[in-house]
Amino acid sequence: MAVVKSNLLKQIADQYPNYLKKDLNKFLEILLKEIMNSLKKGERVEFRDWGIFYTNIQKERISRNPKTGEKVKTPKKKTIHLKMSKKMFNKINTNE
């Protein structure tokens, strides 16, 4: 199952019933926008005991279209990576 923003918002609203859903939605929007802005600047985003988001620059290269075999120039671009913490790794890989 993929994490969908609407499902995430519903879970937060269920855990915090005293807050209005529109306020929680605004909080989530601000949080996601700040993460995106930091990654755009090339900064790391770290969540303790969860993991680190960071960007890498993928060099410009010549790649191949698998359907036609034609060579295609792929431009330089940023890619986003997640390095999970040891605590998260252990939670995922234990039989609890």
Describe this structure in a few short sentences:
By secondary structure, the protein is an alpha+beta fold.
What would you note in describing this structure?
- 41% of the residues lie in helices and 28% in strands.
- The protein is α+β, with helices and mostly antiparallel strands and 96 residues long.
- The mean pLDDT is 93.
Task: Throw out a few tags for this protein.
96 residues, alpha+beta, two-stranded antiparallel ribbon, 41% helix
Topology:
Blueprint lengths: L4 H11 L5 H20 L4 E3 L3 E8 L2 E4 L6 E4 L2 E8 L1 H8 L3
Antiparallel strand pairs: 1-2, 2-5, 3-4
Helix pairs in contact: 1-2
On the 0 to 100 scale, the average pLDDT is 93
**Over the alpha carbons, how many angstroms does the gyration radius reach?**
19 Å
Question: Biggest β-sheet: count, sense, barrel?
Answer: 3 strands, antiparallel
**N-to-C span:** 19 Å
Helix content: 40-55%
- Based on CA inertia axes, which overall geometry fits? extended
Across the major sheet, the strand order is: 1-2-5
Strand content: 25-35%
Classify the secondary structure makeup into a structural class: alpha+beta
Order of helices and strands: HHEEEEEH
Number of helical segments with 4 or more residues: 3
Low-confidence stretches: none
Strand segment tally? 5
